[in-house]
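2024-03-11 09:14:02 DEBUG pipeline.ingest accepted 1 chain
2024-03-11 09:14:02 DEBUG pipeline.ingest length=313
2024-03-11 09:14:03 DEBUG pipeline.predict start
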Amino acid sequence: MAHQEKPPEGNLTELMEFVLLGFADMPHLQWFLFGLFLIIYIIILMSNGTIFLITKMDPALQSPVYFFLSNFSFLETCYVSATLPRMLLNLGTQRRRISVVSCATQMFFVLMFGGAECLLLAVMAYDRYVAICNPLHYPLVMNHRVCLQLATGSWTIGIPFHIGQTCQIFSLTFCGSNHISHLFCDIYPVLKLVCGDTFVNEMLVYTVAVLFGMVPFLLILGSYSKIMSIILKLPSATSRSKAFSTCSSHLMVVVVFFGSAIITYLRPNTRHSEGTDKVLSLFYAILIPMFNPIIYSLRNKDVIIALRKLVCK
């Protein structure tokens, strides 16, 4: 926990901006990193945009699983766009300053899109659970209205929590250095600049992380445990293989995304090292969104067929 002594009144100043240090300790790699992250950003935009497009245009991809996949692709684009453009700006101009309002705005969108992704992954796991464990009732249970409600809920249910958490953090008093040793405005790097005891703030972070991270993760594990028990009972090896293939791409995304996010937000603050936090943030904020479309397209025959149709037009 960050328990700092409150400095004398004369040392307290109202911060108007922060400095995002990012990769400032690697000056010789600035333009290489700028080029690398620009390529990654373009790949993410094009790949997720392609998946979103084909799931809307191809008549064969109008089932609930692809409705949620299109939502997930669009959400990934939004999530990455909350961090990568600012990182590219900092690397390209070497002007690392960010206003308090911009920092708070970035933190809110990172939390909102990240929380929505956790909930949407849980919804996708539930969709697979109903499709495999209760196939006869699947069209009735996962009708278009229910799918809309689940997707809308995933996007919006966390907004009040994240607005409250962001406002609560930025209503605190900051003192000393205004340097944020991170790639973007995230909770723990900002809390390190707060004067006084941050115990209550950290407890709120843990609470929100459990609600929007651990609970969806446990629901996903529960869904997949039921799915696996059904799959193992299938008489045909071909049927078992097809069922495993249907869920394997989703499961790969879940393990990597939730693993890195849970390690980041559910560790005690005293165990947060700047280097580790930067590496983990690269995983859940940049690298995973880049590989998600590859995982879905390479392991999904329907998506590959739809993609070929689009290319051949």
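2024-03-11 09:14:41 DEBUG pipeline.report The CA atoms of residues 101 and 127 lie 38 Å apart.
2024-03-11 09:14:41 DEBUG pipeline.predict end
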